[in-house]
Amino acid sequence: MSKKQSNPQKVTKKYLTRKQQEEKQVKTAVSITIVTLAVVAVLLGYVLIDRYIIKPNVTVASVGDTEIKAGDFQANTKYARMNMLTQATQYVNYFGETGKQYAFPLLYQLQDPAIIGENVLNQLIDEVIIREEAAKRNITVSDEEVQALLREQFAFYPEGTYTPTITSTPVYTPTWSAAQIELINPTDTPEPSATPTETPEGWQPTATEGPDTQPAEEVVPTFPAEEAPTSEPSATTVPTEPPTPTPYTERLFKQDVKVYVDSLRPYGISRDDIEQILYNGLLREKLIEAVTKDLRPEEEQVWVRHILVENEDLANEVIEKLAEGEEWQALAAEYSTDESNKDNGGDLGWIGREDSYDETFLKASFDLEDDGQISEPVETQFGWHIIQLVTKAVNPVTSSKFNQLKQAYFTDWLEDIRTSRDDIQIESAWVEFAPTVPAVPEDLYNYVISPNTQGN
Questions:
Q1: Each residue's pLDDT tens digit, 23-62
Q2: According to a count of CB atoms within 10 Å of the terminal CB, is the N or C end of the chain lower?
Q3: Where exactly are the structural domains of the chain?
Q4: Among residues 42, 91, 351, which one has the least CA distance to residue 205?
């Protein structure tokens, strides 16, 4: 029996019209979706291109034909901010309340991105000049030297533990004339001793380890005492062997470097950036040695003593009494407000031109020429000084002081080169690229600016 054939559905004009409209709506929706996705892709692409290609390649400064790009400027500034923040944290961790006074200037600068940005930008300009001057002298830094410095930063010495070279410190023994002995009785200066500090209560930051930072102190955990055994202990004695220290291998070193670099990645700082910073530091050191090779480890120094008073009238009063023949020692003990040395005649010992004294005080001290000569009243930020020259000489300096002198000489030398050039251009747009990260944690800032709580 054959099946009955179904009649085909009749396609009406109304049906065809509705179907065409539906197809048209679908096409329109698809077109809108495609256009929308295209616009989003374009906008996203523009943002990415602007952030990662256009802005990093904006020139913020130039030295001759060498351009300093915003990307390099930002990476170096973020790295500088990170080191300053780490240093401030260590001051607080290691020195407690005392560390606040050292941490505060760093945190104050970190609050204004333009301060650190300007310092870093000038440093980058100096580095261009240093590279040019090093090239003239055929001074180079190899990749192996950079890698060796990186290993040193992590205290990894695959060829043996590093032992620093001990440099002898020259000691100056003065030859006193009768006149100088009459002016002052030389005495030994005691060595300052370290004063232990307590760990501050409250916020406890943790320093990030890595290049240019000191590792945090090891924390030795304290375990609770074991409960008394419920049964008699075994008579068998088990020898306890000290734990074997884990050797610092190449694998562990690479792992530490990776962890450190990964911690910098959120700030846009790569391992290449770190190695470039190490390279610049090595090149600078080599150029310093070349520029200062003819310097001798000595400097002109003055041996002075002073009486510090509150105003000019008191200073003139002291000078009049000295002219009348009164003893310097007695007047210093009576008048001077410098509690650190008033009972020792205000003796400051030997000081050099680069020492950390007020510039006005240094100039007045070095302007004195004759042994025993007394200055006119000298005003500084601390008050009014009467300065007496004990003697003046060119003296040997310690190795650390010699390094300071070389740094100061090199800084002046570099500044002379920089000011002599007319092809250094700093673009005003650099300010908008000055980063604000890493930011200062609010709890750290509040702790540092809080009043001293010792004794409360």
A1: 777 777 777 777 676 666 655 554 444 454 556 689 999 9
A2: N
A3: 58-159+248-297+402-451, 299-396
A4: 91
CA 431 to the chain's CA centroid: 21
Which CATH number fits the domain 299-396, given the four candidates 3.10.50.40, 3.10.310.30, 3.30.70.20, 3.40.640.10?
3.10.50.40
**What is the DSSP code string of 257-318?**
HHHHHHHHGGGT--HHHHHHHHHHHHHHHHHHHHHTTT--SEEEEEEEEEEEESSHHHHHHH
Contacts for 178 with CB less than 8 Å, ≥ 6 apart: none
Distances (CA, A) of 78 to 57, 264, 269, 275, 436: 17, 9, 8, 15, 8
What is the spatial distance between Cα 178 and Cα 133, in angstroms, rounded to a whole number? Answer: 51
Cα dihedral 32, 37, 43, 44 in deg (nearest 10): 170
Of 98, 238, 183, 125, nearest in space to 370 by CA: 183
Residue numbers in the chain where pLDDT is lower than 70: 1-16, 19, 35, 37-56, 161-245, 452-456
Q: Are 380 and 361 in contact (CB under 8 A)?
A: yes
Q: What is the pLDDT, as a whole number, of residue 21? A: 73
DSSP 189: P
User: Rounded distance, CA 125 to CA 63, Å?
Assistant: 7
- CA distance to 85, 143, 144, 147, per residue, from 282 (Å): 24, 11, 12, 11
Please tell me the distance from the alpha carbon of residue 377 to that of residue 317, in angstroms, as a whole number: 10
Q: Does residue 331 contact residue 381 with C-beta atoms inside 8 Å?
A: no
Beta bridge partners of 69: 59
Q: Which pLDDT tens digit goes with each residue over 119-159?
A: 999 999 999 999 999 999 999 999 999 999 999 999 999 88
Residues 6+ apart with CB under 8 A from 14: none
Q: What is the pairing mode between strands 347-352 and 378-380?
A: unpaired
At 40, the amino acid letter reads: V
Strand ranges across the sheet with 424-426: 66-69, 59-63, 424-426
- E-state strands within 335-438: 347-352, 378-380, 383-396, 424-426
DSSP 374: B
Say if residues 76 and 117 touch (Cβ distance below 8 Å): no
Residue pair 57/70 in contact by the 8 Å Cβ criterion: yes
Measure the CA–CA gap between 345 and 350, rounded to whole angstroms.
14
Burial pattern 333-344, b for ≥16 Cβ within 10 A else e, equals eebbebeebbeb
> What pLDDT score was predicted for residue 280?
96
